[in-house]
Design goal:
- The complex is a heterodimer of chains A (308) and B (214).
- With 308 residues, chain A is α/β, with parallel strands linked by helices.
- In chain A, 46% of the residues lie in helices and 11% in strands.
- Chain A has two domains: 173 residues, Rossmann fold (3-Layer(aba) Sandwich), CATH 3.40.50.1980; 121 residues, Nitrogenase molybdenum iron protein domain (Rossmann fold), CATH 3.40.50.
- Chain A has ten helices and eight strands.
- In chain A, the strands form two sheets. Chain A has a four-stranded parallel beta sheet with strand order 2-1-3-4, with helices on one face. A four-stranded parallel beta sheet of chain A has the order 6-5-7-8, sandwiched between helices.
- In chain A, strand 5, helix 7 and strand 6 form a beta-alpha-beta unit.
- Chain B is of the alpha+beta class.
- Chain B has one domain.
- Chain B has six helices and six strands.
- A six-stranded mixed beta sheet of chain B has the order 1-6-5-4-3-2, covered by helices on one side.
- Chain B is elongated, with a radius of gyration of 30 Å.
- Chains A and B meet through helix 1, helix 5 and helix 6 of A and helix 2, helix 3, helix 4 and helix 6 of B.
């Protein structure tokens, strides 16, 4: 499906005017040092602040943010931050351990990126109770909500640059929306009626839900917790019963479980990025989200092809 | 041969038991205080009868549509500024229409594959009247979703200039009637009478409060 962009051009025109006005002012007085806990927040903040703030990742780039064990160097980094952007709803609980250990909990302002996000429960939960899903950063809509929220909070801390941050946030939001439009061009007109998916863990719920792709089964009973033999058998039964034909597994954190599921059910496996590993770069979120959307489009088209 | 038994008691034995009890009491008190101050608050969301929880009650497509509308609440004021930026002096400001939303690729209005997957809701704009009692609200109504058990949605923008609120406020309502008609008024009581229920998000700040008590 094609799309026309007069509104986008209009917005970019206005943003450019605002940018020129802002560039003309004295905006280099004091540089804010913004700490971040997760890779997507590095990209979000980098796009919002441009060169008007310094970004300090809280942990090393090659660390696994799942079950991270705080290191002494983390506390040193923390002392150099003016503000810290956190997920706050369960994906960076180690950050609060570091804050407490360093006695900085009440000394560094925290920006809770998810303050304004409407949360969803973990899909396909085995126990039946609704557990909050903290993976709001693996999405487009919830990511945009967080970008606006972070930009607003940074603007309150740095009022001279508030308008600059807001305009940058809008342009970045638009860039993310274009990723979805690119995805749509790849799947438009494809029959999705046979597409039934399962996921290794709940990390992709926000993304799949906003695209209208429902999850029929989640393998891990909790994020990072392997299922018992009984739970595994039940999940395999559910996958077979629901005619699941696609399994989404984690790209960076390999698991033999996904191979077991594939062997037992015959589903096709595809890898999705958690956007939680590798170097911190401004483009990481958009690059890996584009890759994820391309993978989803590939899976959708493969299922449609196999169904013919 | 007789044996003499001596019982040797430590000099502080009279106080050991008391000290042990005191330490235990202090530890229990400290633990209680910690739980009181930092413990998880597991109280469920409190909703009125005319509200519905996006987290607990809405599912699948309706939850996705609501979450898109929730973000739209932040974006509509920006788009409003954009589309009125080049207005001539005296030209009347207007709120974005459905074509504007297509230009901005804005879900849940943008008609792409995700829109189809989430039920292909048909959206209608209710323009606010320029004056009179009913001038206060701009409304976007989404109906006729194609999925089972899907409801209707209503995004209501209450305008400050109409004296409705102190600030422009944006609310999202849900109606289990899939073919709900455009209400005559965006006022709360009027909507409730017609079967509309305000959708309430379970947002990150509530979860932070639950986990950390901050």
């Amino acid at each position: 499906m094609g799309f026309s962009l007069p509104g986008i051009r209009r917005m970019l025109g206005i943003a450019s005017c605002a940018l020129l006005i802002t560039l003309g002012s004295d905006a280099t007085a004091a540089t804010l040092r913004v700490g971040i806990t997760l890779h997507p927040y590095y990209s979000f903040v980098a796009h919002i602040v441009g060169d008007r703030a310094e970004i300090i990742p809280m942990i090393d780039a090659d660390s696994n943010p799942h079950g991270y064990t705080p290191q002494a160097g983390d506390m040193m980094r923390m002392t150099s931050m003016d503000v810290l952007v956190v997920n706050g709803i369960g994906h960076d609980s180690w950050a609060f351990e570091i804050l407490d250990a360093a006695g900085m909990r009440d000394k560094i302002p925290l920006i809770y990126a998810n303050d304004g996000v409407s949360l969803i429960p973990v899909a396909g939960d085995n126990i039946g109770e609704k557990i909050v899903n903290p993976h709001t950063f693996i999405s487009t809509t919830a990511a945009i909500q967080q970008i606006y929220s972070i930009a607003r909070s940074l603007g309150e801390l740095d009022p001279d640059n508030a308008e600059f941050f807001r305009n940058n946030a809008r342009q970045y939001a638009l860039e993310i929306r274009k990723l979805r439009a690119e995805f749509d061009e790849k799947v438009s007109g494809t029959d999705l009626s046979k597409f039934v998916s399962a996921t290794m863990h709940s990390g992709y719920d926000y993304l799949l839900q906003e695209l209208g792709l429902q999850v029929s089964a989640v393998i891990e009973p909790r994020h990072g917790v392997e299922p018992t033999a009984r739970q595994m058998a039940d999940t395999i039964d559910r996958i077979n019963l629901a005619n699941v034909n696609v399994l989404f597994a984690e790209k960076y954190f390999a698991s033999k479980l996904s191979d077991t599921i594939r062997d037992a059910t015959g589903v096709e496996m595809y890898s999705i990025s958690h956007i939680s590993s590798g170097p911190y770069t401004p483009e990481k979120f958009a690059d890996e989200m584009r890759e994820n959307l391309n993978t989803l489009a590939q899976a959708i088209n493969d299922v449609a092809q196999d169904s013919v | 041969m007789s044996t003499t038994t001596y019982q040797v008691r430590p000099s502080g034995s009279r106080f050991e038991g008391l000290i042990l009890i005191a330490i235990t009491i202090v530890m229990l008190a400290g633990l209680s205080l910690y739980v009181e101050e930092r413990g998880r608050n597991e109280e469920p969301e409190v909703l009125y009868g005319w509200q519905v929880s996006a987290f607990s009650s809405l599912t699948g497509a309706d939850q996705a549509i609501y979450n898109s509308l929730y973000t739209v609440k932040d974006e509509i004021p920006y788009i409003y500024d954009d589309i009125n930026y080049f207005n001539e002096p005296g030209e009347k400001f207007h709120w974005p229409d459905l074509a504007d939303f297509q230009d901005y690729l804005l879900p849940p209005f943008f008609q792409d594959t995700s829109w189809e997957q989430n039920g292909s809701l048909q959206w209608t704009l209710y323009e606010p009247l320029p004056e009179g009692e009913m001038q206060g609200s701009t409304m976007y109504l989404g109906t006729d979703g194609q999925l089972p058990a899907q409801g209707s949605f209503l995004l209501v923008i209450h305008h400050v200039h109409a004296g409705f609120t102190n600030t422009n406020s944006i609310m999202v309502w849900w109606n289990e009637n899939n073919h709900a008609e455009m209400p005559e008024s965006g006022f709360r009581d009027s909507l409730i009478v017609r079967g509309w229920r305000e959708v309430v998000a379970y947002s990150g700040d509530q979860e932070v409060e639950r986990i950390y008590g901050d």
